[in-house]
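User: Fold both of these, please.

Assistant: Here is the first one.
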Amino acid sequence: MASIKEIRTHIKSVEQTLKITNAMYLISSSNLRKARKQLNDVEPYFQKIEVTISDILHHSPEIHHSFFDKRPGIPPEKRKVGYIVVTADKGLAGAYNHNILKLAEEKMSKKPNFALFVVGQTGRSYFQEHNIPIDVEFLYTAQDPNMHRARDISELMIDLFLAGQLDEVYILFTRMVNSFQMEPTVHKLLPLDPDVFPKYEANRDSYNRDVTYVPSVRAVMDRLVPGYLKGDIFGALVESYCCEQNARMTAMKSSSDNARAMLQDLNLSYNRARQSAITQEITEVVGGAQAAL
């Protein structure tokens, strides 16, 4: 049995760990609420952009725009595919990083000609250790997702797509189904697919309207699509960040529960050791008194 001093030291160590896990749980909970509020504040704006693009596609079905160009003349084996992989900057989040990295490797194994863009320090470290080439100038963190970062990423992807350096662009992130279920997801950014936009509703508004796009439908699409992609990327960044915080909350809650259970066992062992020492001292005193008689 361990000595009383060793058990007391172990108890203090577990108590310090419990304080840390509790603090990390509270911080993750606060970050989760903050990120969710940020997404809810801007979501109506991007939904309106999506609806407007749907209206344009309905009223101008003959439009041929570069953002919708699927480039059928390029064979599958020669298509350059870009993957944006959203990971965390830190660990201690359960299987959050492992699941999204596993999905990324699975997708890249099917596309020999790919370009990899990684958000988050954990993903960059992982791919560099496994000698998987990544864009070294694409240095974005996963912490505190914001619109400025989403705009920079969307502009870079659009430039590469329009220049012909990428034929398809996907973003891999973790989607929160509910508080207990998170699943890695692949979402296609470019080229846009008209079928993914909501169907046009003729009587959606309470008034009759005749919309004219000035100066032209193509010019309006040139302005709307970058905003739509920015919203898509921002939503993926926030969703991944929320999943990371939720996974860390779950991991820290489990760690705290384990620490409390360990403290109970240690306190029981400490009381037993102390009682054994007291009994031993009493036995020695009584034995000494009897020997003196």
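And the second sequence with its predicted structure:
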Amino acid sequence: MNMNFFKDIKIVCHGFTGKMGTYHSDLSIKYNTNIVAGISPGKGGIYHLGKPVFDNAKDAVDATGANASIIFVPANKCVDSVLDAVDVGIKFIVCITEGIPLLDMFFLKKILKEKNVFFIGPNSPGLVVPSICRLGIMPINIHKVGMVGIVSRSGTLTYEAIKQTSDLDLGQSMSVGIGGDPIVGSNFIDFLKHFNNCLNTKVILLIGEIGGSLEEEAAIYLKNNMKKPVFAYIAGVSAPSGKRMGHAGAIIRSTSGKANEKVGLLKRNGVYIIDSIDKIGKSIKDFTIKN
């Protein structure tokens, strides 16, 4: 995955003619995102938002050469849509759908690994490369071309970080939400690797939260692999054990997932910790001025 991929991307949208697919595809097309076709079974042959609609991914790929998919279908239809894309060789998928059953995700993770598919989500706000493409549901008017690579588990906290870095003229090289469900496709490390090699990225911001071990895994990776400064904000410092906070994946167990433990490990591995959401932009700005 590199910036040229996003410049040359050809996207098909599963659930294109539905309410959410229509609304967000329209915004993305207006942002110059190269959505080349939609997929809505039973509606093949029509045009929607000026793009052809197909019954399945095979027909869409054969006609357009699409190499990526974004998925806006309900949770009970998601497995079929993902397999529809994977079976025709699509290797990059963004899944907005929330609440996919855990057994379905266990099944999909195995297939995605076998087929070497880069999968963002589920329950992801998507990805934006400013001025190049928007795959997902992120607000358009807060983005600005710049230096900060943002990767997050939370959609709304991502938007806040984007707004702050834009307001302070830092901008973003890319912003991505990996998803808030308990089982997700890509993880923090996948994007840390990308940002580490991205010439446009000068500073990296990781936004985590309680629950799971993705932040701990990222911290261990960071220690010996990063050549760029990494900042982190971890939400849920005051959350009690056993309480789910927002996302299905944001739940503290008695032995893991606590925000303070994540913060401590990240800090010990060289990450600059931001202790308040309203300090994200200023913390990074102050660092860039001094360095």
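The first strand starts at residue 11 and ends at 14.
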